[in-house]
Specification:
Chain B: One of its GO terms (molecular function) is (R)-2-hydroxyglutarate dehydrogenase activity. Chain B: Residues 53-77 are annotated as: Disordered. Chain B: Keywords: FAD, Flavoprotein, Oxidoreductase. The complex is a heterodimer of chains A (254) and B (517). In chain A, α2 crosses α6 (194-200) and α4 (100-114) crosses α5 (133-141). Chain A has 254 residues and is α/β, with parallel strands linked by helices. Chain A has one domain (4-251): HUPs (Rossmann fold, 3-Layer(aba) Sandwich), CATH 3.40.50. Chain A contains 7 helices and 11 strands. Helix content of chain B is 29%, strand content 18%. Chain B is built from 16 helices and 16 strands. The chains are: A alpha/beta (254), B alpha+beta (517). The interface between A and B is medium-sized, with 18 and 22 residues.
Chain lengths: 254, 517
């Protein structure tokens, strides 16, 4: 096995930022807004770096699809311990309509090209909450998938994955090469320390175009409208139980 | 400055008296706090801002010097007639329910307790004026209260003073986004003001851990320092105007929104830091800086305090105008954060940690400066480890290593808090000397604080309140501070707990020269 792990990292609006809808309801405001690596992608990078530290794999390659700024996200992955990066350049209209289908095609192509043993992704991105990219990538590659992983262990050429599901925890064993998606409790991402940040500046980020990978970026989806969630109504305080009954009757609840 | 003093105002440089001609009350309240600790005679019974508060600790032990409660002055007690007046003036906002009064009678540290029976919540300056005029003429003591987050027992009543809360005076009156001048009522919570300003491209010039609860009126009354003082200066510089209601109900309108005004005495400066002894601040106008487009936080580890200071010099030199905060904590603080709040160390274990914040208008410019600084700091071995955050989530996480120490201490036991200003080279020496002095008697002795401003927060904990330990700490800590001409209360104020120690650090000294021949 090549011992190479491909980790997908997505640049999203920072989770602490207050989201605003554009006045024309076509999307959310992204200009001048703080962006950072998707938290689940951080967990994915951390897991890959941990595997490398345990000497179970040899190389961690961080991949991001997007405009120039996506390189910052790759640099963060490099500072956390990834060895090199691949920036798949997608800009303008293509970037606006970039979704799980297109990304999974890109990742599948890269996984084949790089002869990856594992592809580790975050379970979902916090901007679109799709939770589809990992699954689609596995399907395109016809590889087994371990999604919502809260524990991963490599045993020879098999991977034992503990998955977080509604009923509790499910343990599966899948063969490599495979796609894994990281859930919240898989690990706690490390802070990138200064020596690593300095080293990361020297690591390579290769530039690739989707066309080079033979990927068609056309989207089959069209966003019609984006709206803010309805404002939460203020509660009301009443003095007595009788008042409460009156108010409930007025509101048609009783 | 607009003043409503009827005749001439004799304001002596020694601040001995603010005498109002034609007024029966002499606001001698300040006199007991200023100047050599000598108490000036209380010439009038109508003193309405109680400066002396009792330290009625919930868990009682033998009382030491700082615990001796001052006697209750001969104020009147609240009668039904008084309550009727208040209820007419403030319908639904006159609180007498003991459960509701509980939080106004006890301070944030749960170390002092008053026994007020009346809580008033005015909404306008006019109401405050009416309340004070009434209390003045009926000899009733009043305790102004903002967010009740003070750390020296100054925000809660000593005895049964009426609590005058500004909590409902939370309107923002005006914001000028060209000049950056914000005018608001004094009960606005600091964090709410920050959020309001951030939507308009500005920020408050001060920031402190208590921002979710503290009110701007209280901040001004205590001349709060905080985490941004290094960059934006103190409230004495950023507050442009105040509206204050004096003890007898007269409203002093110094609510100017002018950046520069040299006409007459700058009276508002007296109220900044007066801790509620000269008047109730009802409105504030404050100069707000631009919201920075780029904020970075760096968390560094150092081997020695000397290296920490050298790193400070380096950061001033290389980061220059974008440096906005330089804070430190020691390894004991980090252990408390790990033990009580389960926070992880972002870097490897070191004796000292630094939190540096930069704020600027150009992310690329700032990042380049920051990286150059970090490279230099690492190359010259001034720091042994560190991490950088540019994203809001990570920035909050790094700041919480410094901001949540106070919280971690409350879980460690009974805390003895000291807020000391010292020459910056001496800051940590006090911590090491205190550790040696106390030996095993204390549970934890930690040092952290605004090292960039020369301000140390020395905290000592013990499993329970211990009078013998307190006697070992005080007056050792004050004498030590006095020896190096430091201040025994850099930013927390005097309040109740430190009222007796003012003479250790006096701002005003007299020098007498022999007559010339």
């Amino acid at each position: 096995m090549s011992g190479r792990v491909l980790v997908g990292v997505k640049r999203v609006i920072d989770y602490a930022v207050k989201i605003r809808v554009k006045p024309d309801n076509s999307g959310v405001v992204t200009d001048g807004v703080k962006h950072s690596m998707n938290p689940f992608c951080e967990i994915a990078v951390e897991e890959a770096v941990k595997l490398k530290e345990k000497k179970l794999i040899k190389e961690v390659v961080a991949v991001s699809c997007g405009p120039q700024q996506s390189q910052e996200t790759i640099r963060t992955a490099l500072a956390m311990g990834a060895d090199r990066g691949i920036h798949v350049e997608v800009t303008g209209k293509d970037y606006d309509t970039l979704g799980p289908l297109q990304v999974s095609k890109i990742l599948a192509a890269l996984a084949k090209k790089e002869e990856a043993q594992l592809v580790i992704l975050g379970k979902q991105a916090i901007d679109d909450d799709c939770n589809q990219t990992g699954q689609m990538t596995a399907a395109l590659l016809d590889w087994p998938q371990g999604t919502f992983a809260s524990e991963v262990s490599l045993e020879n050429d098999k991977v034992k994955v503990v998955r977080e599901i509604d009923g509790g925890l499910e343990t599966i064993k899948i063969s490599t090469p495979a796609v894994l998606t990281a859930d919240l409790r898989l690990n706690t991402p490390r802070y990138a320390t200064l020596p690593n940040i300095m080293k990361a500046k020297k690591k390579k980020i290769a530039n690739v175009k989707p066309a080079d990978l033979g990927v068609d970026l056309t989207s089959r989806l069209e966003v019609l409208r984006v709206d803010e969630p309805p404002q939460r109504q203020a509660g009301m305080k009443v003095e007595t139980v009788d008042d409460l009954v009156v108010k409930l009757k007025d509101a048609g609840k009783v | 400055m607009v003043g409503i003093f009827q005749r001439s105002l004799r304001l002596r440089t020694s601040l001995r008296q603010l005498s109002f001609h034609g007024s029966t009350s002499s606001t001698d309240t300040l006199s007991s706090l200023v100047l050599r600790g000598r108490l000036f005679p209380i010439s009038s019974p109508s003193v309405f801002f109680s400066t002396h508060r009792t330290l009625q600790a919930p868990n009682d032990g033998p009382k030491s010097l700082s615990d001796t409660p001052p006697p209750r002055r001969p104020f009147s007690r609240v009668t039904e007639e008084d309550l009727t007046f208040f209820r007419t003036l403030l319908p639904g906002r006159t609180i007498t329910d003991p459960d509701l009064l509980e939080s106004s009678n006890v301070d944030w540290l749960k170390s002092v307790r008053g026994s007020s029976e009346v809580l008033l919540r005015p909404q306008t300056t006019e109401e405050v004026s009416q309340i004070l005029r009434y209390c003045n003429s009926h000899n009733l003591a009043v305790n102004p209260q903002g967010g009740n987050t003070g750390l020296v027992g100054g925000s809660v009543p000593v005895y049964d003073e009426i609590v005058l809360s500004t909590a409902l005076m939370n309107n923002i009156l005006h914001f000028n986004d060209v000049s950056g001048i914000l005018t608001c009522q004094s009960g606005c919570i600091l964090e709410n003001l920050s959020l309001y300003l951030e939507e308009r491209g500005h920020i408050m010039p001060l920031d402190l851990g208590a921002k979710g609860s503290c009110q701007i009126g209280g901040n001004v009354a205590t001349n709060a320092g905080g985490l941004r003082l290094l960059r934006y200066g103190s409230l004495h510089g950023t507050v442009l105007g105040l509206e204050v209601v004096l003890a007898d109900g007269r409203v002093l309108d110094c609510l100017s929104t002018l950046r520069k005004d040299n006409t007459g005495y700058d009276l508002k400066q007296l109220f900044i830091g007066s801790e509620g002894t000269l008047g109730v601040i009802t409105a504030v106008s404050i100069l707000c800086p631009q919201k920075p487009k780029s904020v970075n936080v760096v968390f560094l580890g150092c081997e020695t305090f000397e290296q920490l200071l050298k790193t400070f010099q380096l950061s001033k030199r290389m980061l220059g105008e974008i440096l906005s905060a330089y804070e430190f904590l020691d390894s004991e603080c980090l252990n408390l954060l790990k033990t009580h709040l389960k926070l992880q160390n972002p870097v490897s274990d070191c004796p000292f940690y630094i939190v540096i914040e930069t704020q600027g208008s150009d992310p690329n410019h700032d990042e380049e400066k920051l990286h150059n600084f970090l490279e230099e700091a690492m190359a010259s071995s001034l720091v042994v480890d560190g991490t950088v955050a540019t994203e809001e989530g990570k920035i909050k996480a790094l700041w919480s290593m410094r901001e949540r120490i106070t919280e971690a201490l409350t879980h460690d036991g009974f805390t003895y808090k000291y807020d000391i200003s010292l020459p910056v080279e001496r800051i940590y020496q006090l911590v090491t000397d205190m550790r040696r002095h106390l030996g095993d008697r204390a549970k934890s002795v930690v040092g952290y604080g605004h090292v960039g401003d020369g301000n140390l927060h020395l905290n000592i904990t013990s499993p329970a309140k211990n009078a013998a330990l307190l006697a070992a700490i005080e007056p050792f800590v004050y004498e030590w501070t006095a020896k190096f001409q430091g201040s025994i209360s850099a930013e927390h104020g005097l309040g109740l707990k430190k009222r007796n120690y003012i003479h250790y650090s006096l701002g005003v000294r007299w020098r007498v020269f022999p007559p010339c021949r």
